[in-house]
Amino acid sequence: MFNRSSVFHRLSYIVLNNPSPNPSLFLGIRRLSKPCSDPSQSFAVTNLKDKLGLSPESAFKTPDKPDSVVSFFEKHGFSTTQINKIITHRPGFLHYDAEKTFLPKLEFVRSKGVSSPELARLSYYNPEFLACSLKKQIIPCFNQLSKFLESDSKAVKAIKRNPFLITCKLDTYLFPNINFLLDNGVPESNIISMFPNHPRSFFGKIDQFKEIVNGVKEMGFDPLMLRFLQAVIVFKKVSKTKMETKLDVYKEWGWSELEIRGAFLRYPCVMETSAEKIMAIMDFLVNKMGFQSSVIAKQPSVLLRSLEKKIVPRGLFAQDLLSKEKVFIERFVNRYESKPPELLMLYKEKLDLAIGDKYRSGEEVPGQVCVSYEDKASELLKLYEEEINLSVGGKGKTKK
Fold it and tell me: Do residues 176 and 207 touch, judged by C-beta distance below 8 A?
C-alpha cells in the first residue's frame, strides 16, 4: 500500500539535508507535482536564483517582472549581496513599483548629503527604510533629528552610524533619555557633540538608561564634563561580563582597584578596549619596553591607541634614540668631563627639560607618550661644541 506520509517525510529529510545550495531534487518535485503554466514566471525564478542566489522559497514568491526591481537597485549602486539581503528580508518588495515607492525615499535622503553607496548601505542594514512612509515617518524623523542636533549634516552622520534611526520612534526611545540627561545637569552642547558618533548609546528603555546615568554619577563623574557621557556610552556598549573580564586583565598586570578606578575616571574608554588588545599593549610596554605597569596606569590613554600603527613604531623609535643617547654621553660628554666640568651638569639640566622629570617618574605627560629625542640630541651636540670652543679654544672640536 502506498504510504504518502512516509514518502513525504523521506523527501523532506533528503531536501533538508541536501548539501547543495540549490537543491535540485526539491525543484524537481515541485515541477512534477505542479507544472508551471507561466513560462515567464519560471524564467523569473531561475533568473533570480542565478543572479542573486535567492533560496527556492524566495524565488517562487516573485512577481511576473521581478527584474524591474532588481534593475532599479543595481541602477542605484546596490551590490548583489545587498539586493539579496533586502529581497530575502522583504520578498514583497519584488511586487512594488520601485520608481514610485523607493525612488522618492532615496532622493530625499540623497538631497541631505547621503551618497549612493551610503544609501545602499542604509537600505541593506535597515530594509524597513524602503517600506515605511516618506511623509509620515522618514521626513518627520529626519527633521526631529536635525532640529535636536541643530544641523542636517550631524543628523546625516548619526543616521550613517545607526541606519535604524530613520525608522525609529524617537519620542519613545530617544528623547526621554536625552531629557533625563539634561535634568541631571549634562550640557546640551555635550550631548550634541557626542551623539552623532554614538547614536546607539543614547537609545533604549528609559528605566535602564536612568540606572546607567545614576550609576555614573555615583562613581564621581561630573555631569558638566564630556567624560560623564563617555562613561555612559561605555556602560551602554560593554556588557557586565566583558567589563568584569577587563577588570581581571588589569589586575593580572598588577593594577590595584584604586589605579583601575583612577584610570577609568580619567579615560572611561579604557574599559571599551578589548581584553585581547589590553593584554597585547601591556605585554609590549612592560615586557619589551621595560615600563612599570603602574606608569601605564597613570597614562592609560596609551591603551586607546593602535598597537601596530602607533605604539610599536614609536616605542622602537624611542628605544633606538635612547641607545644613541647613551653613545652620545659616552663619546661627547663623559670623555671631556675633566676639561669643562660644568658641561655634564649643563647636559643633565637640558636632558631634564627634554625628557621631563614627570615622564621619568611616571606621572602623566599631556599629548604623546613617546618623547622625540632627535631634535634635543642635535641641540645638545651643538651646545656641547660651543662649550668646548669656550673651554679649550676649539681643540676639543677637532680632537679624535
Answer: no
DSSP letters, 146-200, are HHHHT-HHHHHHHHHH-GGGGGS-HHHHTHHHHHHHHHTT--HHHHHHHGGG-GG
- Cβ count near 287 (within 10 Å): 9
Which tens digits make up the pLDDT trace of 147-203?
999 999 999 999 999 999 999 999 999 999 999 999 999 999 999 999 999 999 999
List of residues 6+ apart from 32 with CB closer than 8 A: none
The answer to whether residues 380 and 347 touch, using CB atoms and an 8 Å cutoff, is yes
**Sign of the dihedral through C-alpha 342, 348, 352, 354:** positive
Question: pTM of the entire structure?
Answer: 0.66
Largest CA distance in the chain: 121
pLDDT in tens, 273-308: 999 999 999 998 899 888 899 999 998 989 998 888
Q: What is the mean pLDDT of residues 96-111?
A: 94
| Cell 519613545, residue located | 172
